[in-house]
Amino acid sequence: MSQPAPIIEVAHLDKFYGDFHALKDINLTVHQGEKMVICGPSGSGKSTLIRCFNGLEWHNSGTLVVDGTEVHEDAKEMGRLRQEVGMVFQQFNLFPHLTVLENLTIGPTKVRKQSAKQAEETARNYLERVHIPDQADKYPSQLSGGQQQRVAIARSLCMESRVLLFDEPTSALDPEMINEVLDVMVELARSGMTMVVVTHEMGFARKVADTMVFMEAGEIVEISPPEQFFTNPSSERCRMFLDQILEH
Amino acid sequence: MAGPDLSGLQGKPLPQSSALRRFLSSAQASVVMYLIIMGLIIYGAYVGAQNMGYNWQWHRVPQYLYSLTDDGFQPGELLLGLAATVQLSVTAFALALVLGLLIALLRLSGLAIGTPVAIGFLELVRNIPLLVLLYLFYYVLGPIFHMNRYWASILTLAVFHAALISEIFRAGINAVPKGQWEAAKSVGMSTAQTYRYIVLPQSIRFMLPPMTGEAVHLIKSSAIVSVIAVVELTTVGRNIISETFMSFEIWFIVAAIYMAVTLILSVGVSYLERRYTVDQ
Hints:
The complex is a heterodimer of chains A (248) and B (280).
Chain A: E1 6-17, E2 20-31, E3 35-39, H1 46-53, E4 61-66, E5 69-70, H2 78-84, E6 85-88, H3 100-110, H4 116-129, H5 145-158, E7 163-167, H6 175-190, E8 194-198, H7 202-208, E9 211-216, E10 219-224, H8 226-231, H9 236-246
Parallel strand pairs in A: 3-8, 3-9, 6-7, 7-8
Antiparallel strand pairs in A: 1-2, 1-4, 4-5, 9-10
Chain B: H1 19-24, H2 27-51, H3 62-65, E1 66-69, E2 72-75, H4 77-108, H5 114-126, H6 130-145, H7 149-174, H8 178-186, H9 191-221, H10 233-244, H11 247-279
Antiparallel strand pairs in B: 1-2
Helix pairs in contact in B: 4-5, 4-7, 4-10, 5-7, 6-7, 7-9, 8-9, 9-11, 10-11
């Protein structure tokens, strides 16, 4: 079986905030259809890394190639690239002045220039997939956190992106709503979507991850398949982190 | 207002505020006191005018507001003046909005040249009195650029208020959370699309109250163009007085007209504002 094509390639990537070395010599590759879960203590640079993938942050040196395009601040292709790389945020970031349906169709109609009818059809289809078909005409503030995050996932899906980035998608949710969001993400993973997920939800990681990444202090400490990652991690630091978050 | 019925409850009632305090904060008491104070002021003005031998001629005022002829309703000089004031203000305000938005965007653009240009403009306008600015436009820039007095006054008002309006735009745009920008970018929107579909619609809510204040301010400061004899409400009032010597009556009426217009504007916008908040 031939190896699927790489969609995100990172080589020797460094990022600084002033004097602070936020990302140190990052090397990794995400292939098409791969599910990568990135974990690590807060402040380790996980979010910063995936925010570099769609140009919400810019790296200072090294190479980052996403979907065949070299990412840097002046790249003309950034607009096109962002259409191919969807993102789901910790704080949902839905557009509060638009209804759920409008949140889903504004990207496809204004950016992808789809017809309103076609965009609405796609949107209703994806609302069905995230299990909230009957909330289309409400405003985001009328929904629960879990519903809002599922709308945000549907919004990314409507752009028919090739990769989805998840930046701690369940961290801002009340505990009883975490599973409804994770269930949707598991279904999405099973459908073959390429996903890079920053999360502490190790149950989810065990279920779907093809590759586990552990980061600390801006470095990748461990990169391994989940069987090895959870049973026999090579680094002591990673073992300690897993003990702490899996304890209860 | 009667308090709730607490008779069925176990707890001790809270101590009542004093009788005097309750009387002073009741609605009836404030209306009565307001009427007494207004009455005293009006009576004082009337007595003062009587003492200086002022000849009140209110009956001559209506003809300057309107007249009813065989052709029906005819607006008088004052109403025509009001129309000119409204036209002047609307044109100047529209220009000020465009200019103010451009300056705000320039400042937020992150371009190295943006901030100094915007701040320079802001400080220049803020530190020159409106009257002097008007003289500059009319007596200096007017002859240079072949501007008539009408356009000199419109530009003066537009430039003066654009400075303040740009600050309102900037604050309104900054009040939209950063996450909205990121979400818009992540669906591939350009900066222009993000402003148009995401940021500006949300900042309207923050900008409406101060914008209304600015519009009211502009209508009032438009009176200053009467010093270069542009025809508008204040100029018309002055002309009528120089013919009739009814200075008390006419100035009262002119003030009342300005007040009516700006009050209608404020009430209308606060209605709009309520609708915007219900929507979300």
